[in-house]
Task: inverse folding
């Protein structure tokens, strides 16, 4: 083997052969430590959003239950007549009669990604803006799911995951058993549109489309029930 004049290391072709094994090992180590990015999106624990554009009493029945009419205690919103000056009644759809006082904002459904226009949502409804990073939201969100369970067929309860990471939001909701329909708003479009900065925010909507916005400390069960009764006309039992 040839060496340089100082006699410290191989020279020429011998030097290349001498360096090759450590270089191969170094390259192999870099490859082994590379992280393969996640290509799959977090599964959604939430229900779909298709029923939100019909009044709660008009929502399709559960797949587990036989088709039936809406419960007698839940009546669809009345159809408004045309002006008396016309001398006749024109057909007005229930949807047109109860257009809500909500910002004209469209957000994707967390499940499926279909766009939901807020002005197409039909009340009575409760819309809860939350984020998995927000401590009072984490306290309040399970109560919203309890409200959804207790008022099924009478009230839409909708979540809006706000300024959040999709995977973090899905993980927290799954851990808490939250399955109500939820929209995804990482850019906080709805929060800005209702003129608020901090979470949680809850929007109460009655059957006539009138809204009330609550933005304060996390609601407990009695306070939430009272606000629902006052601002949506729905009494929560259980």
Result:
């Amino acid at each position: 083997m040839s060496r340089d004049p100082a006699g410290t290391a191989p020279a020429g072709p011998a030097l290349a052969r001498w360096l090759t094994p450590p270089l191969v090992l170094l390259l192999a180590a870099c490859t082994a430590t590379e992280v393969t990015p996640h290509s799959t999106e977090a599964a959604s624990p939430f229900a779909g959003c298709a029923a939100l554009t019909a009044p709660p009493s008009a929502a399709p029945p559960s797949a587990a239950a036989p088709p039936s009419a809406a419960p007698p205690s839940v009546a669809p919103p009345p159809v408004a007549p045309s002006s008396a000056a016309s001398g006749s009644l024109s057909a007005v759809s229930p949807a047109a009669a109860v257009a809500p006082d909500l910002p004209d904002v469209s957000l994707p459904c967390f499940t499926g990604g279909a766009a939901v226009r807020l002005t197409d949502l039909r009340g009575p409804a409760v819309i809860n803006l939350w984020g998995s990073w927000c401590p009072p939201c984490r306290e309040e969100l399970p109560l919203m799911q309890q409200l959804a369970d207790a008022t099924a067929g009478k009230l839409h309860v909708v979540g809006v995951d706000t300024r959040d990471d999709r995977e973090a939001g899905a993980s927290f909701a799954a851990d808490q058993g939250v399955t109500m329909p939820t929209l995804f708003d990482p850019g906080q479009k709805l929060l800005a549109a209702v003129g608020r900065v901090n979470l949680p925010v809850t929007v109460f909507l009655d059957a006539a489309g009138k809204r009330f916005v609550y933005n304060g400390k996390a609601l407990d069960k009695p306070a939430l029930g009272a606000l629902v009764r006052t601002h949506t006309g729905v009494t929560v039992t259980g």
Summary: The first strand starts at residue 106 and ends at 108. The longest helix spans residues 13-33. The CA atoms of residues 42 and 167 lie 5 Å apart.
